[in-house]
Design a protein that fits this description.
Shape: flat
Order of helices and strands: HEEEEH
Structural class: alpha+beta
Largest sheet: 2 strands, antiparallel
Oligomer: single chain
Distance between the termini: 43 Å
Number of domains: 1
């Protein structure tokens, strides 16, 4: 009985917070997309319990430039990036720290 109630509480708690935080998550994904016009989500396959693989979705934190199918890390003010000087998520986020 306890495990059933706990499982139900966990699912409801996660669902409520997913609904509450979804606008913030969408805003972060939009800002990351505007920062370097790439896919804002990084997908990684991980090995979990009993060696079962699963996909982990993360907001990408490293800026990239695609040059002839070679993905390279670049600086915020990289000359090949059209919006690099007009929008900088890292400096915007640092000004909002308390």
């Amino acid at each position: 009985m306890y495990k059933t109630i706990k499982r139900l509480f966990d699912i409801l708690f996660a669902l409520v917070f997913a609904i509450i935080l979804s606008p913030l998550i969408c805003l972060v994904l939009l800002l990351k997309y505007l920062e370097d016009l790439g896919n804002p989500v990084y997908i990684s396959e991980r090995v979990g319990f009993r060696k079962k693989t699963f996909k982990l979705y993360k907001v990408r934190s490293m800026s990239v430039v695609n040059m002839n199918y070679i993905i390279q890390q670049h600086q915020i003010n990289h000359p090949l990036h059209p919006l690099a000087r007009s929008f900088d998520l890292q400096s915007w986020m640092s000004c909002c720290k308390y």
